[in-house]
Recover the amino acids of this structure.
């Protein structure tokens, strides 16, 4: 909201941005919602002694855990639908609208790469890489009569000191008399199109779909580029359903049959705090993995695996 009022980024645009990013936030908070909902539900059963009746009828905590796990499958399916189908699309739309509202450049993502307008020029970037690098860049310059006068293709480009350095360039100049082609090893391109503008229309790794991440990781590996952030995002998607299940099972341990007089609001607050603590621990584990080059499948899955192991052990006691 701090950007509200800048250029065309009005309050309405800010509200639309919040609305479009809501699916992504919901996907991130599913484990927290799972433990809150489970504690509230089990708390109500305990409050009216229904949980005691269930236990005295011969249902063990393990049996209760199996029942809750089946219910958790609905949350898992819903999280997959949001995380794979809704959130990536809405997040991309949010970034595109924000880019258009906050900058003079018009940028958008298509099947043919990323398009942007920079004054009288149109830029098509086929591949965007980490570290302010892009590949397969096309620049089309038009005159005042909207006639194409110059077409530039660069195999590679990198951004530094507020300028783009183009490499392996082929420039085609078009006039009424002739068409000429020139080739350069490299040249500077003083464009207003900064990497930050491009990033407005990029979806962050954690918001890409599962198959989108697989495809991009494969591309980065083929080009010997850094894959750690994307591998972490991939493993987070893999472990997310297990995190939801672990939080649901944790609620069984936290809600005691004997605590009939606990207020539901207290249980919800307690569940919220547990969920937030787990979320923070999960984030810290991921960041430590990046800093110390710990394999993604270890740094990302460790919190959930530890929680699942602890819950399984305590349920069988």
């Amino acid at each position: 909201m701090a950007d509200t009022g800048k250029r065309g980024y009005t309050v309405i645009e800010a509200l639309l941005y919040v609305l479009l990013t809501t699916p992504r936030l919901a996907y991130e908070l599913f484990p927290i919602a799972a433990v809150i909902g489970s504690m509230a539900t089990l708390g109500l059963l305990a409050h009216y002694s229904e949980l005691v009746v269930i236990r005295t009828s011969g249902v063990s905590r393990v049996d209760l855990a199996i029942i809750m796990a089946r219910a958790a499958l609905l949350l898992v399916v819903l999280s997959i639908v949001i995380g794979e189908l809704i959130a990536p699309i809405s997040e991309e739309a949010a970034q595109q609208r924000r880019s258009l509202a906050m900058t003079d450049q018009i940028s958008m993502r298509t099947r043919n790469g990323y398009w942007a307008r920079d004054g009288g020029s149109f830029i098509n970037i086929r591949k965007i890489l980490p570290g302010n690098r892009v590949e397969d860049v096309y620049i089309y310059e038009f005159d005042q009569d909207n006639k194409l006068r110059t077409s530039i293709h660069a195999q590679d480009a990198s951004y530094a000191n507020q300028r783009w350095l183009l490499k392996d360039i082929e420039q085609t100049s078009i006039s009424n008399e002739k068409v000429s082609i020139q080739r350069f090893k490299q040249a500077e391109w003083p464009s207003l199109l900064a990497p930050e503008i491009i990033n407005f229309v990029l979806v962050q790794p954690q918001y890409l779909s599962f198959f989108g991440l697989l495809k991009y990781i494969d591309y980065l590996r083929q080009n010997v580029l850094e894959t750690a952030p994307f591998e972490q995002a991939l493993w987070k998607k893999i472990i997310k359903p297990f995190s939801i299940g672990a939080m649901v099972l944790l609620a069984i341990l936290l809600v005691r049959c004997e605590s009939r007089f606990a207020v539901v609001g207290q249980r919800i607050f307690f569940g919220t705090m547990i969920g937030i603590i787990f979320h923070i621990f999960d984030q810290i584990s991921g960041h430590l993995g990046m800093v110390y080059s710990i394999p993604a499948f270890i740094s990302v899955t460790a919190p959930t695996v530890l929680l699942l192991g602890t819950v399984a052990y305590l349920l069988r006691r």
